[in-house]
Amino acid sequence: MTSKHLQSSRIVRFLHLCLLCTMLYLVACSPVEQSQWSAAQEASQGQPATDQEALAGGEFNKFFPQSHDQFTIVYTQEKQGFAEAILRDDGDDVATLAIFDTVSNPDAAAKYTDSTDKVADYPAIAIGSNGTGILVADRFQVQVRSTSADFAEEERAEWLAAFDLDGLAGLE
What we know:
This protein is α+β, with helices and mostly antiparallel strands. It is built from 5 helices and 7 strands. The protein starts with a helix and ends with a helix.
């Protein structure tokens, strides 16, 4: 290679480097646009995710139905005001079972106000096409959601009634 060719190659690399640095500088120094969620993020900053009065999720586990016959209950999640388990039939997931303390979300409890359906003497509502929920003691939403097409509304009602609903109603 000639020295003239090497020199022009160095100039081209230098120009590429300058262009790259300029682009990085412009991107890094450009103003950040506010997202549609910025106001909500700022309003909730430092706020608890749930109301402090909500019971710990672990408090609810003793009220879930017990495993029996071919059915197994597998606890999957518990957090402030919420506990969830999977219902398995011979090892296959057929439903999710959950208890939610609506003290942190009163709108969830309000959905039961006009309910004329009952399961185990508690107001019941359909939750989508695969779920059934009841409201215990005007506070605790107990829910069964089918994850299998073979797990029908009648079976959801049976499993809702299998919870220790009177024990749950005694919580404060």
